[in-house]
């Protein structure tokens, strides 16, 4: 029933919705199925407006979460870096924690405990992937020294340094 007065029409519509909640839900579902693009655009606009209204609160919540979950932040940062250079694959925070547990929470190269970074066995710059099987935990020092070397090349360098440092037993 259509009313000329918009307020009266809205009041009638509200009452109808209260009396027929299932019919209203079904009608909305049918509309969404017939208009997926329009529905997607409306959701986008709503989320954008909600974000603008609450940006400071949302950003503070995200920062607090990432501060209390450093493994998630590390995985997120690595995924961003890999996407930026179009490398294949990604790993999750849970996979990173499993890898740390498997390696005993120490650097894979020098055995030092402490803050560890994700190091790519085959560097992304040389065609490596960002999958967990191409990742090793490494301390900042070893990861920085390794730079663009593969894991094998870096281990050879470390072995050569160790042999050069050991005093000669032959005289």
Give the proportion of residues in helices.
Answer: 55-70%
Q: Which structural class best describes the helix and strand composition?
A: mainly alpha
| Overall spatial form | elongated
Low-confidence stretches: none
The ordered H/E elements are HHHHHEEHH
Report the sheet-strand fraction: 5-15%
- The gyration radius over C-alpha positions equals 28 Å
Domain count: the total is 2
Briefly characterize the structure:
The chain has 171 residues and is mostly helical. The chain has helices at residues 6-19, 21-34, 36-68, 70-84, 93-102, 140-146, 151-165, and strands at residues 116-120, 135-139.
What does this structure look like?
The chain has two domains: 6-66, no CATH class; 70-165, DNA Binding (I), subunit A (Orthogonal Bundle), CATH 1.10.30.50. Helix content is 63%, strand content 6%. The protein is built from seven helices and two strands. Strands 1-2 form a two-stranded antiparallel sheet.
What is the element layout, followed by pairings?
Elements: H1 6-19, H2 21-34, H3 36-68, H4 70-84, H5 93-102, E1 116-120, E2 135-139, H6 140-146, H7 151-165
Antiparallel strand pairs: 1-2
Helix pairs in contact: 4-5
Quick tags:
mainly alpha; DNA Binding (I), subunit A; 2 domains; two-stranded antiparallel sheet; 7 helices; 2 strands; 6% strand
């Amino acid at each position: 029933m259509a009313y000329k007065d918009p307020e009266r029409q809205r009041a009638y519509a509200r009452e109808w919705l209260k009396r027929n909640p299932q019919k209203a839900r079904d009608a909305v579902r049918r509309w969404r199925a017939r208009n997926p693009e329009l529905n997607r655009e409306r959701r986008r606009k709503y989320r954008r407006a909600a974000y603008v209204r609450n940006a400071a609160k949302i950003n503070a919540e995200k920062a607090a979460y990432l501060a209390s979950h450093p493994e998630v932040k590390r995985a997120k940062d690595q995924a961003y870096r890999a996407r930026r250079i179009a490398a294949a694959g990604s790993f999750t925070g849970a996979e990173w924690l499993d890898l740390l547990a498997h390696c005993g929470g120490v650097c894979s190269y020098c055995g030092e405990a402490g803050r560890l970074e994700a190091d790519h066995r085959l560097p992304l710059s040389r065609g490596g992937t960002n999958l967990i099987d191409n990742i090793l935990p490494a301390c900042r020092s070893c990861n920085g020294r390794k730079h663009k070397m593969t894991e094998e090349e870096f281990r050879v360098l470390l072995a050569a340094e160790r042999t050069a440092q050991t005093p000669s037993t032959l005289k």
